[in-house]
Amino acid sequence: MTESMTTADDRRRGRYIALEGIEGAGKSTVANHIVARLTDAGIDALGVREPGGTGAGERIRDILLDTATELGSWGEAMLFAAARAQLAAERIGPALSAGTWIVSDRSVYSSLAYQGGGRGLGIEAVRAVNEAGLCGVWPDLVIVLRVDPARGLARQEVEDRIGAEGIAFQQQVADAFDRIAAQDPDRVVNVDAMRTVGEVVDEVYGLIQQRLGSVT
Ligand code: TYD
Questions:
Q1: Could you tell me if the CB of 16 is within 6 A of ligand 1?
Q2: Does the CB atom of residue 23 touch ligand 1 within 6 A?
Q3: What is the dihedral of CA 86, 89, 92, 95, to 10 degrees?
Q4: Helix, strand and coil percent figures for the chain, each rounded to 5
Q5: What is the per-residue pLDDT across 175-197, written as a single tens digit (0 to 9) for each?
Q6: Is-contact 47 103, C-beta < 8 A?
Q7: Fewer CB within 10 A of the end CB, N or C, for the chain?
Q8: pLDDT value of position 35
Q9: CB atoms within 10 A of CB 15
């Protein structure tokens, strides 16, 4: 599958929802529940995660998360963008064209917050690099699950190269997510994730119904 096979018009048939947040916010759990609820509502829904989701992307993921990898901030940002471009071209773009809804555990918004904010590369500079590779495959709705950085780090199951950066880094990432949400309130919505899974899932699903429609 090549990028040229996906046109902008085709792409509008499905919807692309991204779950975001710092470490330990519960994105994966919520994403699984949302895929199940969309499926129950008769929608063809597919869960994906970043970085990864393709053959090349999973290999890039290993490099990115391995604590033994030595990588500068731009090298890191470019590898995340490369894995993401492949996922968009190979899976997300074609799925949206076929009318499938995508529920993604992380997205380009993680790069804006972690590399743009946390690493200090600048949100706009990181956005530009990613836009080039995504060719218009961009989330329609971004839900940021907000959790206290100390509590989030404590909840983290396996510490990877980026999760190992510690609390000050997590706080910078959280601040960047807040700035991004404030700048684009039509697309990016905060949800308090310091509650039970059921409460968080209900609020996220309600937002999807409200913002994207055609969901019962
Ligand atoms: P993952 O195991 O998916 O972590 P989590 O369970 O927290 O989602 O690892 C992803 C790590 O990579 C996480 O620390 C966040 C970071 N990351 C970035 O820094 N930039 C990005 O663009 C993405 C997608 C992830």
A1: no
A2: yes
A3: -140
A4: 55, 10, 30
A5: 999 999 999 999 999 999 999 99
A6: yes
A7: C
A8: 98
A9: 23
